Known about the structure:
Largest sheet: none
Radius of gyration: 13 Å
Amino acid sequence: MDLVPLIFYGVICALLGALLPQGMRTGARLGLGAAIGVAAAALLPIFRSALGV
């Protein structure tokens, strides 16, 4: 198993969970989470090449 994506997405999810206000509507949190997930997936190859992994 490749640990780089697991760690990368774990960090993204932890930050997302810590920074999103609990007062937001569920749909808004879901949409923002989906947008951040897509952005993270797009940026992962860049981070991997920068790390040389």
